[in-house]
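FAQ: What does the model actually see?

It sees only this:
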Amino acid sequence: MTETEQKILMMISSSGESKAKAFEALNQVAEGQYDKARALLKEAQEIDLEAHKVQTQLITAEMSDSEDKPEMSLLMVHAQDHYMTSQLARDLIEKLIDVFEKKEGK
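And it is asked to produce this:
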């Protein structure tokens, strides 16, 4: 496995972990645990930052004039999909928490 493939797999893994934390936060909302939910979303965001760093490295390398720049691959497209959906899940769940808190008058 190449170094680039390892980075891409780390991006997929981080994105999956972030999305799992976001849905765990939503489960906490269902139990009325808003502080726990917000803490889990913060964890999800921090995990997303790791995936974002890898994404930035790969995009920067692809844009370089270097001869060893990474090629676009199906694996990278897959990683990008995971990263984007984890961000969407986190953002949507954050808004849902706001809605439920407002509804309960918190």
